């Protein structure tokens, strides 16, 4: 929360105190929108211990009536209907609060995600945030059979740590990393990239961002490795790169957690994944593949 508060003004032009996930606590349970509508003991959800509790009021409605209400709205709060900006956990909590005590939740929680993702920075990091959601809801099971994470590869609630980690990686919108070596093919077409992964004997995919400080050094090192293997007539290695600031959907499709990162494919199969770029490990792996 502290990092978001300290950096938000300079990054998005307004101060935010945190990125919030909410649930509604009633009848001794905590109800929340994760893998569909979920119910756990208070404070025992995959999202951990609440940082703040806000009293909304008391309800005279019986739990059975509330469960009937949840059943009625369950089709609108499924794994497949989730929208990170307009239909997230906070919207679910708000509907529950309105039903139980005729009171909405505070705007700082209800409208924050939508406002953030309307900013230029929000648009840029949205795929990265979405790509890191599944870990939070692995332990949650829906109260109603309306579609689950097991049946569809789609992401869910806003992960506060994902946004904060992205804040710490981005140093502003001004490019700080140099362009890559000519030995590396820059690619922006995901379909072409996926086809190349399947058809190329050995492919190195390097994901970077022109606004990430770490890419200054890694761009130089990956360029040196690419030139070395490109000049080797016995090598069949092809190097591709994607600037995730320009092609943000790649971060979502490849479940990117950190930048820069590297993937090595041999005949369409992943043989090396580097969530943190390691030039020595990469060069060693390519040398091993060359000998095979």
TrEMBL record:
GO molecular function: peptidase activity
Biological process terms in GO annotation: protein modification by small protein removal; proteolysis
Highest taxon of source: Eukaryota
CDD domains assigned to the protein according to its UniProt record, in alphabetical order: TRX_family (cd02947)
Keyword line: Hydrolase, Protease
Gene3D superfamilies, per database record: Glutaredoxin (3.40.30.10), PPPDE domains (3.90.1720.30)
Pfam family of the protein (one): Thioredoxin
InterPro entries from the UniProt entry: PPPDE_dom (IPR008580), PPPDE_sf (IPR042266), Thioredoxin-like_sf (IPR036249), Thioredoxin_domain (IPR013766)
Domain PPPDE: 1-130
Keyword flag Cell inner membrane: no
PANTHER family listed in its UniProt record: DESUMOYLATING ISOPEPTIDASE (PTHR12378), DESUMOYLATING ISOPEPTIDASE 1 (PTHR12378:SF7)
Record-stated family: Belongs to the DeSI family.
Descriptive protein name: PPPDE domain-containing protein
